UniProtKB/TrEMBL annotation:
<dbReference type="GO" id="GO:0005840">
    <property type="term" value="C:ribosome"/>
</dbReference>
<dbReference type="GO" id="GO:1990904">
    <property type="term" value="C:ribonucleoprotein complex"/>
</dbReference>
<protein>
    <recommendedName>
        <fullName>Small ribosomal subunit protein bS6</fullName>
    </recommendedName>
</protein>
<dbReference type="GO" id="GO:0003735">
    <property type="term" value="F:structural constituent of ribosome"/>
</dbReference>
<dbReference type="InterPro" id="IPR020814">
    <property type="entry name" value="Ribosomal_S6_plastid/chlpt"/>
</dbReference>
<dbReference type="InterPro" id="IPR000529">
    <property type="entry name" value="Ribosomal_bS6"/>
</dbReference>
<keyword id="KW-0699">rRNA-binding</keyword>
<comment type="function">
    <text>Binds together with bS18 to 16S ribosomal RNA.</text>
</comment>
<dbReference type="InterPro" id="IPR035980">
    <property type="entry name" value="Ribosomal_bS6_sf"/>
</dbReference>
<comment type="similarity">
    <text>Belongs to the bacterial ribosomal protein bS6 family.</text>
</comment>
<dbReference type="InterPro" id="IPR014717">
    <property type="entry name" value="Transl_elong_EF1B/ribsomal_bS6"/>
</dbReference>
<dbReference type="Pfam" id="PF01250">
    <property type="entry name" value="Ribosomal_S6"/>
</dbReference>
<dbReference type="GO" id="GO:0006412">
    <property type="term" value="P:translation"/>
</dbReference>
<keyword id="KW-0689">Ribosomal protein</keyword>
<dbReference type="GO" id="GO:0005737">
    <property type="term" value="C:cytoplasm"/>
</dbReference>
<keyword id="KW-0694">RNA-binding</keyword>
<keyword id="KW-0687">Ribonucleoprotein</keyword>
Length: 94
């Protein structure tokens, strides 16, 4: 397994419970597809450098995990179909 880090920028207008369920869904997708969560770092709502889809701020979460190619494919698919994830990034950690 390789080490990865993903950051998700989530719609700030969601209530706390919905935001937590979005984060839980991301971690569940990783774990259900041969991945292992190492750390979940919730940064909270931060101002954006520029507006994304008319939002001036967003909720940031960073997740460190170990996974395979299958894990990344499924995670990227999940990000693409979720309209509340404004931006995302998956990096291979060294």
């Amino acid at each position: 397994m390789r080490k990865y880090e993903t950051m998700a920028v989530i719609n700030p207008d969601l209530d706390e419970e919905t935001t937590e369920s979005k984060i839980e869904r991301i971690t569940d997708i990783i774990e259900d597809n041969a991945g292992e969560i190492v750390n979940v770092d919730k940064w909270g709502v931060k101002e954006l450098a520029y507006e994304i889809e008319d939002f001036a701020s967003a909720y940031y979460v960073v997740i460190n995990f170990n996974g395979e190619g299958e894990t990344l494919d499924r995670l990227n698919w999940a990000y693409n179909i979720d309209d509340d994830v404004l931006r995302n990034l998956v990096l291979r950690a060294e």
